[in-house]
Amino acid sequence: MIDVKQLKYFVTIAEEGQITKAAQKLHIAQPPLSQQLKQLEEELGVLLFDRKAKKMELTPPGKAFYEKAKQLLRQLDDAVAEVKEIEDGTAGTLSIGCVKSCFSYLAQAIRHFHEQVPNVTFHLREGDTFSICQLLQERHIDIGIVRLPMNAAHYDVIQLASERYVGVLPAQWNNGRAALCMRDFANWPLLLLHRVHGAGQYERVIEECRRHGFEPNVLCECPDATILLSLVAQGLGATIVPQSTVALFRLPGIDVFEITDSSMTAEAAAILDRQRYLPKSARRFLAVLQTIAANGQQEENGPLLRA
């Protein structure tokens, strides 16, 4: 009779590729682990690994069993988590992935949530929208906070408050202007946010420039908002970013302006894996996040515009 322990041992060996490494990871001796694998193969009546190669490689039956074993272990983990969360949901670790330009949503939500549920700790991951979606699919995070648009086919999407874009210039470029219009950007090199994969804010800004009758001079594309703002502070060019991004990563050497003739808005969303059980702590956090978005709370941001 195959048990959970054998499944965990088998999956670990498959992922490590060696009995020795698997034993080290499992904190058990190598001979008992080899014996457990042998017993599992005898019970199944198949060889799960090709032992002739330097690295233990899965046979075709082994590959099929590996996928099923991982699925069973995940389902067991979800079942155990669900039972525990029904009882409490006020402790443990909440894993969240966030696009850097959305950190203002995350920072406010964590502060409010921590006041209500002080014993929940956070594990935070950062990336662009594509990488956050991958982290969610691979179950490294419970919640993703991303910029739209995105392919929402596999996710539940909870839209957060939209916000305007602002123009950011090096402080040394300032000539007493009070605001900007889109045509101003035709005269400057642009440094723009760009996802590693897929379309998003970059394409939106380019489209807005073209709508105002000019092709932008893009000097730099980067998925990291802090890097872009640092380059602006050094005088390399101007950028157009969501309003809260500048508020959270306000650097010396930059000036921020309203763009008076642009209707561009940046949309953010919390995303969930619809096939996965969501811990009670995560549901509580989402409620806080939605409340902040609904109330339009940006009190931590302070004044955004220089003018």
Describe this structure in words.
It comes from Geobacillus subterraneus. Keywords: DNA-binding, Transcription, Transcription regulation. Belongs to the LysR transcriptional regulatory family. By secondary structure, this protein is an alpha/beta fold. It folds into 2 domains: 4-85, Winged helix-like DNA-binding domain superfamily/Winged helix DNA-binding domain (Arc Repressor Mutant, subunit A, Orthogonal Bundle), CATH 1.10.10; 92-306, D-Maltodextrin-Binding Protein, domain 2 (3-Layer(aba) Sandwich). The chain contains 10 helices and 13 strands. The strands form 4 sheets. It has a 5-stranded mixed β-sheet with strand order 4-3-5-13-6, sandwiched between helices. Strands 7, 10, 11 and 12 form a 4-stranded antiparallel β-sheet that branches. Strand 1 (49-50) and strand 2 form a beta hairpin. Helix 1 (4-16) crosses helix 2 (19-26) and helix 5 (103-116) packs across helix 10. The longest helix is centred in the N-terminal third of the chain and has 28 residues, at 60-87. The protein is elongated. The model is unreliable at 297-307 (pLDDT under 50).
